Amino acid sequence: MGARSFALSAASVFTTPARPQDFLRLVNPLSSARQLRGVVTSVTPECAGSVTIAFRPGHGWQAHEAGQYARIGVEIDGVRQWRSYSLSAPAGQDPAITVTSVGRVSRHLVEHTKVGDIVFLAPPQGDFLLPTGPRPLLMLTAGSGITPVMSMIRTLLPRRADADVVLIHSSRTPEDTLFRSELAMLDADHDGFHVVHRHTGTDGRIDFTTPTDLEQLCPDWRSRKTYVCGPAELLDDATLMWRQHHVEDALSVERFETALLTDASGTGGRVVFEKSDKEADADGSSTTLLEIGEEAGVLMPHGCRMGICRSCLVPLRAGQVKDLRTGEIRSDEGDLIQTCISAPAGPVHLDV
User: Fold this and answer.
1) What's the pLDDT tens digit per position in 47-57?
2) CATH C-level class of 269-350
3) Which pLDDT belongs to residue 325?
4) Which residue in 111, 178, 203, 257 has a CA-CA distance of 20 to 30 Å to 346?
5) Pick the CATH number of 35-121 from 2.40.30.10, 3.50.50.60, 2.30.110.10, 3.90.640.20
């Protein structure tokens, strides 16, 4: 038994029926045996509608690797909401997230977070990671897709004098560009780091139907390990181009959103969350069961919110649901439903 475990065990003699951790939490809000937490240490504006929120995690946090993300929980109107955010701080340092005010939780974080606030945390995860050995790299990013790549750049450049990195970043205007000043300084200070800004408001988007645009920006792109992060259209276009030129194995893609059908909607209906004893009426839109549950105040399990990690699986007790990616209808009682990419196709009962 470790020293900390022994001390807690001994202290329990005096705190029963409560646990020692319950008393510790009165003194240290980061102390919790049930839920990892962090305290906000800084809130730094980046550009209009975007901030970087740094926090000091409590005991149990696993140091992140460059490019990973973590689930962040925040209380909004008495309901704990969770979202996944890429970590923008260098590997091994206290974590930070860079958030743009799009969506309910992100808007809350941008507009209301202040130093000293407590956030809820889940361990870092994800395999959008730097290669283990030296290799020329190309980073293709757009908008907030630069966030995990910024963690990679901040990690790699101080550690490797021989780093060879080309970053091509797209934003609508110079004023919309995250980390612009820091990127300019890094470009000036490191011979092996080259930044290319593409302002779509004046330059247009990169054309991936032919390699012409890319070859002008990075002539040796085929020989580089490439990381792509940004809107789904960028990811799809880059994946197709790399596949057509037989270099798909050199491509790593990080998705922030799920590719849905053109008619990504259910038929709606009443959703009953049996264990939580809550109900909600859903219209025939593309609102997912996960979102419906959260709006109803149900503590819904989830992770990536994109149908990848399968952390959101919930047993179907009755009714039908529609997979918003494929259009498949699921109706077998006991089926495990991915609530983050499923919508009700009529009345639904879920075991949550």
Assistant:
1) 989 999 999 99
2) alpha beta
3) 85
4) 257
5) 2.40.30.10
